[in-house]
Amino acid sequence: MRLFFGAVALAVVAAGVVAGAAGLQIAGGPGQVISAGVIGHSAPDPLVLAVGDDAAVELEWAAVAGATSYRLLRSDGGPFTLIATLSVGDFDDTTVVPGGSYSYRVYAVGADGAVSDAPAAGSIAVPLEP
C-alpha cells in the first residue's frame, strides 16, 4: 500500500512500520493506518548567545507556536548532550569553564511529543576573564 502526502510517498510494510521522509509519522498494525500527521515544529530561531558578567553563557530564543517545551543540547567539541528541558525561551549555562568553546542546539517540542525538524544553533567562546 502506498500513501501520498504532497510529493512524499510512504510505504506500509507488513510489520505496520512506515518508512518515509522526515516530517511525517504514521502508525498502525499490518496494513492499517491509525493516525497520520505532520511531526515537527519550526526551529526556535533566532538563538542568541552572550557571556554574562558571571562568565555564564546566556541563551535566548524565540518562542515557537505550539511548543510546550524546549530541549537544550551542548557540545564542548565532542558529541552533543542534553543539558536541560525547559518550558521557557531562555537559559543561563553556569557550568561552562572560562576559556572553553561551546556549541548549542535548541529543539522545540510540541504537546504531542513531536520535535522540531531542525534546531536553532550557535557557538560561543567563554573568555578567560569576564
Name the shape in a single word: elongated
Compute the number of strand runs: 12
The low-pLDDT segments are: 1-39
User: Which strand order spans the largest sheet, edge to edge or round the barrel?
Assistant: 9-8-11-12
- In helices, the fraction of residues equals under 10%
| Share of β-strand residues | over 45%
Mean pLDDT reading: 75
Radius of gyration: 19 Å
Structural class: mainly beta
- What is the N-to-C order of secondary-structure elements (H for helix, E for strand)? EEEEEEEEEEEE
Distance between the termini: 61 Å
Q: Characterize the biggest β-sheet.
A: 4 strands, antiparallel
Number of helices: 0
Tell me what the structure shows.
With 130 residues, this protein is mostly beta strands. The protein is 0% helix and 49% strand. It has no helices and 12 strands. It has strands spanning 2-5, 8-12, 18-19, 24-27, 35-38, 47-51, 57-61, 67-75, 81-86, 90-93, 101-110, 120-125. A 4-stranded antiparallel β-sheet has the order 9-8-11-12, with no helix packed on it. Strands 1-2-3 form a 3-stranded antiparallel β-sheet, with no helix packed on it. A 3-stranded antiparallel β-sheet has the order 6-7-10, with no helix packed on it. Strand 2 and strand 3 form a beta hairpin. Mean pLDDT is 75; it is low at 1-39.
